[in-house]
Design brief:
By secondary structure, the protein is of the alpha/beta class. It has helices at 17-26, 64-70, 106-117, 131-144, 178-188, 205-221, 272-281, 300-308, 380-383, 390-406, 417-422, 451-467, 518-536; strands spanning 2-10, 33-44, 52-61, 77-79, 100-102, 123-125, 225-227, 232-239, 245-252, 257-259, 263-265, 286-287, 290-299, 325-327, 333-340, 344-347, 357-360, 369-378, 412-416, 440-442, 477-482, 489-490, 502-503, 505-507. It has a seven-stranded mixed sheet with strand order 14-15-18-13-21-19-20. A five-stranded parallel sheet has the order 7-6-5-11-24, covered by helices on one side. Bound molecules: flavin-adenine dinucleotide.
């Protein structure tokens, strides 16, 4: 099989144009082309008047060896690599102990699924509820301002990404094609097949819920066990005088203790109580940088027009996204984060008396507004020095200020971009209607953001407007505060994926500081499952 890359065709090309492009590229007759599949489809919108689709194709041809020689110097014609996923181990029939996975977000469920597929019968402990019940609880906050601190946007089956845009692209290096396994498992569970080949795939909230249930069913069918409302409140360890130790089990909030030698810690970035517990237990935890800021909303039609010109609204292109970065004069970097085309801004707190924003969309991405985080980097050295967990306090403080600026009822504080740039509070909104529920309060966002963040965003808005005309429009809406962009801590692990001072503890995914987003968290889950499986079998390779 050959992989042909950078095959460019017009946006409205016909199906026949694809094989024709292959024949033209390779200079072969139609009779030599056996079959082809699309490996990747992206688009090149640098010239808005002439947007092109860009394909990578896997092509079966006669005389492959001859063609490889002919195109030896052309990087756009190469042999297709073997991308089949190989399990690294197989569990013995008699398991001495079962691995425990804490958290059923994308990292936890991919770790549990991979372990189950290798026969290790994992026990998954999830503090929140099963996804349907959790959906109800999440809607209670969005509709009635009622928060359940154990079942919400951050906590529950499916993890933080369940009520999201379901973007699956990532820039991680993936030499072993773990990402392909993530996508294959998602498709098996009901994701659209196109996620395998389009360059910026997304799933949307509605489908994610059904997928998570299917993955749960498969883990159980393979002998795994999943427990909801099962918060892990302690990790049992034995330690030497230097503080190095190993895991012997986990203790649930109910008091129950489960003995195990292998614990995958996939708790996400909002498990603040769990980070405190880990620190108090002696597990090595350090502070790490993250970003804070606001969500910005514009009319999606304006973003489409700016990005796609006359092709705005084209069904292949869908609702346009963007990615923007500005290096501000105060040394900070302001950038767009987790952009959700045609979506809504959501209330994403997991703690009472706090307001946190994030964004989500349905698969169709057909809501009126585009939203994106507009955030600025913060570091332990400059902004929350002194303690490994200080980033949590820093986040909490801003989230509490946002709660009071919003009216102390889970409404979010909002400000028009025009007012924000002029440094005056908003008293009313313009023609962009904010989508955040349960409600919003026009105010001054300086009440809940540090000055350096406000200044960096003020400088970034006009710079972004030069790239997307209208970005700094008076009526665009800023909603605060976006604080959970990534974990404020890293639970440091070694090359063997185990905590650097606690053997048998496998820090994983976003919460431990090893992933950012659904896709990379899923990939990390597979890698950690492989490390657990190899450790449990003494490194025996799969047969
Ligand atoms: P999480 O998904 O956070 O899962 C951790 C799980 O652990 C949770 O279910 C939690 O309840 C559980 N847990 C925590 N502590 C304990 C404990 N002590 N005991 C038992 N269980 C525990 N990413 C994207 O790539 N694309 C997007 O479009 C996108 N949109 C998002 C929209 C929203 C609203 C949010 C909140 C996030 C979004 N993200 C998106 C980020 C993405 O959700 C995360 O990067 C991803 O979910 C991280 O996966 P994880 O498995 O590491 O952690």
């Amino acid at each position: 099989m050959l992989r042909l890359t950078e095959i460019k065709l017009p946006l409205d090309h016909t199906p026949e144009d694809l094989p024709a492009a292959i024949l033209a590229k390779l200079g072969i007759p139609a009779s030599d082309l056996v079959q082809f599949t699309i490996y990747r489809r992206g688009f090149d919108a640098r010239k808005r008047s002439d947007i092109l689709l860009v394909y990578s194709l896997d092509v079966e041809v006669k005389n492959e060896e001859r063609l490889l020689k002919k195109f030896a110097a052309d990087h756009r014609v190469k042999p297709t690599p073997d991308m089949t996923y190989q399990y690294v181990a197989q569990a013995p029939t008699e398991l001495k102990s079962r691995p425990v996975v804490i958290g059923m977000g994308p990292c936890g469920f991919m770790a549990a699924l991979t372990l189950a597929q290798m026969g290790f019968k994992p026990i998954v402990l999830e503090r929140g509820k099963a996804v349907r019940e959790r959906t109800q609880d999440t809607w209670d906050l969005w509709r009635q301002g009622k928060l359940d601190p154990e079942s919400n946007v951050q906590f529950g089956e499916g993890g933080a990404g369940t009520f999201s845009d379901g973007k699956l692209h990532s820039q991680i290096k993936d030499p072993k094609f773990h990402g392909r396994k993530v996508l294959q498992e998602f498709i098996k569970a009901g994701a659209p097949e196109e996620i395998m080949y389009i360059s910026k795939p997304h799933i949307g909230t509605f489908r994610l819920v059904g997928m998570v249930e299917k993955i749960r069913e498969e883990i159980i069918a393979l002998g795994g066990e999943i427990r909801f409302s099962a918060r892990v409140d302690d990790i049992a360890t034995v330690r030497d005088a230097e503080g190095n130790g190993r895991v012997t089990g986990v203790k649930l909030a109910s008091g129950e203790v489960i003995a195990t030698d292998h614990v995958v810690l996939a708790v996400g970035h909002s498990a603040r109580d769990t980070f405190e517990m880990l620190y108090n237990t002696g597990v090595y935890v350090e502070a790490k940088p993250f970003s804070i800021g606001v969500r910005i909303e514009h009319p999606q039609a304006m973003i489409d027009k700016a990005r796609f010109g006359k092709f705005a609204g084209h069904p292949i292109l869908g609702a346009a996204d963007y990615k923007l970065v500005h290096h501000a004069s105060n040394g900070r970097t302001a950038y767009s984060f987790c952009m959700c085309p045609g979506g809504t801004v959501v209330a994403a707190t997991s703690e009472e008396g706090r307001v946190v924003t994030n964004g989500m969309s349905q698969y169709s991405r057909n809501e009126r507004n585009a939203n994106s985080g507009l955030v600025v980097n913060v570091t332990p050295e400059e902004d929350f020095p002194g303690h490994p967990l200080a980033g949590i306090g820093f986040q909490r403080e801003l989230e509490s200020l946002a709660f009071s600026a919003g009216g102390s009822n889970y409404n979010a504080p909002v400000q028009r971009v025009g007012d924000f740039l002029k440094g005056k509070p908003s008293t009313q909104l313009g023609h962009v209607t904010p989508s955040y529920t349960p409600g919003v309060t026009p105010t001054d966002l300086r009440k809940c953001l540090p000055k350096y963040v406000v200044n960096a965003i003020r400088e970034a808005l006009p710079a972004f407007d030069r790239q997307i005309t209208g970005y700094a429009m008076e009526d665009a809406v800023l909603t605060g505060v976006e604080t959970r962009t990534s974990s404020p801590v890293r639970v440091k692990r070694g090359d063997d994926f185990q905590s650097i001072n606690t053997r048998g503890l496998y820090p994983a995914g976003e919460g431990a500081g090893y992933a950012g987003g659904i896709f990379s968290a899923g990939v990390d889950g597979i890698k950690v499952a492989e490390a657990v499986a190899l450790d449990m079998t003494g490194g025996t390779a799969a047969t």
